[in-house]
Amino acid sequence: MIEKFEVLKRLQSLKNRINELEASQERRKRDVQEKKVQIENEKSLADKKHEEKIAVQKEIDRKELDLNTNEGEVTKYNVQLNSIKTNKEYSALVSEIGSKKADMSILEDEILNTMSRLEIANQDYEKATECLRNEEESLKDLINSVDAEIKETDNEIEKIKNEQKKYIDLLDEHSLKHYNRLSNIKGGKAVVPVIGNVCGGCFMNVTTQTLNELMGGDDLVFCLSCSRILYLDDK
Ligand SMILES: [Zn+2]
To answer: Are strands 198-199 and 191-195 parallel, antiparallel or unpaired?
Structure first.
């Protein structure tokens, strides 16, 4: 017949194992959450790059429209030059044409500069979307592997729970009640060894009476300081 504290010890180690597995599941779920947040950031960055690119393109469109308007006016003025009667009107119009042409030359330079900016904005946008695509791919992989891990861990937990039941059936109601109470409040260490007269849970000396109780009988013995269930470590 297996001793009571031995059963409790095994229950404790099974329970600790379940806690570990559940904690690792939580960690993996957090990894997925973190990756999702990261992708949201990449996505808003790509959106921002897209807006920048559209804004630069609009700037070019506006400038080209201005250029066309000026061009139209210069053509119109050139036609008007043929029908002008006075020298004064003629030179006024020539000077107007000169000023329009100067404006056009400035606009042309600006358009060239803005086009270089558009090229950079396009590259930035491509880079951001490429990065986003890669992150989304790696999220898919991560979700797949985390799902598989969680499923595997669930199976393992299920197996451990069945094994727990086997041990619980070996315990009387009294012992099980103590175990449940302690394992919930003592951070997974409800059953601890006494090593060199010291409780392995709170490291206080145990009394001679406690030691005597441990050596005789097979009733549960509790630490007087921390009330954990004690057993004698043979080592
Ligand atoms: Zn103790």
So the answer is: antiparallel
Q: Are 198 and 235 in contact (CB under 8 A)?
A: no
Distance, in Å, from the CA atom of 205 to the CA atom of 220, rounded to the nearest integer, reads 18
**Distance (Å) from CA 128 to ligand 1 centroid:** 59
Ligand 1 geometric centre to CA of 15 (Å): 20
Q: CA-to-CA distance for 105 and 87, rounded, in angstroms?
A: 27
Does residue 25 have a pLDDT over 70?
yes
**Tens-digit pLDDT profile for residues 167-212:** 999 999 988 898 888 888 777 789 999 998 999 999 999 999 999 9
Comparing 38-52, 71-85, 135-149, 184-198, the range with the smallest average pLDDT is: 184-198
In contact, 41 and 128? CB cutoff 8 Å:
no
Instruction: Compute, in angstroms, the gap from residue 173 CA to the centroid of ligand 1.
Output: 23
* Full-model pTM: 0.75
How far, in Å, from the CA of 108 to the mean position of ligand 1?
86
Which segments of the chain does DSSP mark as H helices, in order? 4-81, 87-170, 173-185, 208-215
Arch. (CATH architecture) of 4-171: Orthogonal Bundle (1.10)
Domain ranges of the chain: 4-171, 177-232
- pLDDT at residue 235 above 60? no
Tell me, in angstroms, the distance from the centre of ligand 1 to residue 223's CA: 5
Tell me how far the alpha carbon of residue 169 lies from the centroid of ligand 1, in angstroms. 27
